[in-house]
Amino acid sequence: xxxxxxxxxxxxxxxxxxxxxxxxxxxxxxxxxxxxxxxxxxxxxxxxxxxxxxxxxxxxxxxxxxxxxxxxxxxxxxxxxxxxxxxxxxxxxxxxxxxxxxxxxxxxxxxxxxxxxxxxxxxxxxxxxxxxxxxxxxxxxxxxxxxxxxxxxxxxxxxxxxxxxxxxxxxxxxxxxxxxxxxxxxxxxxxxxxxxxxxxxxxxxxxxxxxxxxxxxxxxxxxxxxxxxxxxxxxxxxxxxxxxxxxxxxxxxxxxxxxxxxxxxxxxxxxxxxxxxxxxxxxxxxxxxxx
Length: 291
Prior knowledge:
two-stranded antiparallel sheet; 291 residues
């Protein structure tokens, strides 16, 4: 059987699970089973080795049972960089790139000023994709924090995978718990804090796609109104963010106004849209201290 035939077989099997993405997912799984990150057209006429075909059949069954493609492959791309992923971390999504890109713009704008970005804190880091990608692409060091020791383990692997061991470090703790002693040791706060917190309303979770329900519940459930973690963030972030620093918060598509209102008294607040035009990031620029 050629690789083209194997992809066609996989696509047919996946249509009822993956719908319009069946062709894409079939090619991704075939590439994975061949030990590649992607398949090129000129390779499709090659023979599909028996062991790779057997592995593909196993992957198809896992996908038909609604295991996310990204978990089957074990790696996904974010901001053009590879990240190890498994059931202990959220899958990196294009929507979240809005947050990372906003941080990069701020870093670039302040680079040659009297207030450059010297250190970044990434809370609820999960796979580490936000903090690691920003550090890799800008050279700004980052502290990555998460309550889950399993997530921290994944983030540490991704630090090594992306070669930023000299820029990034991990600490395990609930929200700002691990960052506080770190900042005390440095005798300095952070210039940017990025957070992608749990923000889905508890009573909505049951209606999510079965693939999403395979992701860690601790990273999804934002409480009764989806705003529980934003309230906790509001109470704890200020002592860690330097005056003039920026807090960047990912939100649900309909939460921009509500989250902005929570932080309205803290400084200049704005909302950024994602590539689909939905509210996605609330930006809070902390006021400078007045002498």
